Amino acid sequence: MKTSTTAQTMNLNQVTVPKPELTQELYKWGIWGVFLVSLLWSFFPAEMNRIPELWTGAENMRELAKDFSKPDFRYWHQYSELMLETVQMAIWGSFLSVVAAVPFGLLSADNIAPKWVTFPVRRLMDTTRAINELVFALIFVSAVGLGPLAGVLALAVHTTGTLAKLFSEAVEAIDPRPVEGIRATGASHMQEIVFGVIPQVLPLWISYSLYRFEANVRSATVLGIVGAGGIGMSLSEALRSFDFSASAAILLIIIVTVSMLDIFSQYLRKVVIDGEEHKKLVLYFLGMVVIFVLTEMAVGKVIDINAILRGEA
Fold this sequence. Notes:
Layout: H1 2-14, H2 22-43, H3 53-56, H4 58-68, H5 76-107, H6 115-130, H7 133-144, H8 148-172, H9 176-184, H10 189-223, H11 232-240, H12 244-274, H13 278-298, H14 305-309
Helix pairs in contact: 5-8, 5-10, 5-12, 5-13, 6-8, 7-8, 8-10, 9-10, 10-11, 10-12, 11-12, 12-13
């Protein structure tokens, strides 16, 4: 037994690990070199040399944090109503973007569409991603006027570009064998996509869509600055008037709402991708429904809570 073990050890010692080719080594070091040069090139333009000022200006930040430590919820009815409007904008903006991103994502995938189709579609999606939601919001405000519709359209257009890119990358990474098997049965190109491609990418698509919904809730909180609805206008006015107590109250409402939606998305992803946490998802969803219904009632959209408390109707 010892002899065979010793022989195996000697054999392993005699194995020579092939060295990587020179071109591979140069490629690897070239990538690292480009990365380091990029950091050095952008160091002074990005004012990274001023990082120590974070410590020298710590007292100013401490004073500002002290002003934010006393949130003022006097107008919580108004803030809650605007926060609900913000979530509703994110819901519709995300829904419209997913509907549009599915065809655009498929048309951007090299293994689905020809090059003469993918190239212009990708450039179009690059354009929608490159332009910020605030710019789109300004454009749509000029078209449809002030209000949440402009914000919904801005979120939808910008998010379509992001999701189309993610969707196309998921499609390009699929296993081609199921598609080839479906093609061998004489199926059409559309049937190959429906039965061979989409079942493979659907969990990833859902995960990406949920992530973008969370991001849209955060983005929708600032679209009000340009009059595109949501809580952004109130936050902007509070900050511009140095009303840090009201700003703190608005930020707390935003943080709580985003955190609730983030936990819900986490449970939903586990149900869709892993097939777990069904009970937790249902219970949490019911809890969220109760909270949103009570909030709607509190801001007077469903029933007037103040009137009930006064004993009127």
